[in-house]
């Protein structure tokens, strides 16, 4: 791939990301008219980006949920321990 081709692909990718997800396919169709290979490359970049972004956020939420729950449990153990001391 030439440097010019890469710049074109990168520009298309960034422009597509600025649009709503539902509008991206139509945007690429118009922007890549007459160059099916460019369209395929740009669409693949978007698919990979969306898959990785989705995985990132799912993993981040799982992580937050895990640590949030762990902190809650630790806090509850402290409260129970303090309550036991107070009730003696």
Number of strands: 0
Overall pLDDT score: 77
The portion of residues forming beta strands comes to under 5%
SS content category? mainly alpha
Helical content, roughly?
over 70%
Q: Work out the radius of gyration.
A: 24 Å
Q: What is the helix/strand order?
A: HHH
* Low-confidence blocks of residues: none
- H/I helix tally: 3
Q: Mind describing the biggest β-sheet?
A: none
Distance between the termini: 76 Å
The dominant shape is: rod-shaped
Task: Provide the fold topology.
Elements: H1 3-17, H2 24-31, H3 36-87
Helix pairs in contact: 1-3
Describe the structure.
It is a single chain. The chain is an all-alpha fold. It is 85% helix and 0% strand. It has three helices and no strands. It has helices at residues 3-17, 24-31, 36-87. The longest helix is centred in the last third of the chain and has 52 residues, at 36-87. It starts with a helix and ends with a helix. The model has no long low-confidence stretch (mean pLDDT 77).
Quick tags:
88 residues; mainly alpha; 85% helix; 3 helices
Sum this structure up briefly:
The chain has three helices and no strands.
């Amino acid at each position: 791939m030439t440097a010019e081709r890469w710049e074109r692909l990168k520009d298309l990718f960034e422009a597509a990301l600025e649009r709503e997800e539902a509008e991206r396919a139509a945007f690429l169709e118009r922007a890549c008219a007459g160059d099916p290979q460019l369209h395929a490359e740009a669409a693949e970049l978007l698919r990979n980006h969306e898959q990785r972004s989705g995985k990132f956020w799912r993993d981040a939420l799982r992580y937050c949920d895990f640590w949030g729950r762990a902190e809650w449990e630790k806090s509850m153990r402290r409260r129970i321990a303090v309550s036991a001391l107070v009730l003696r």
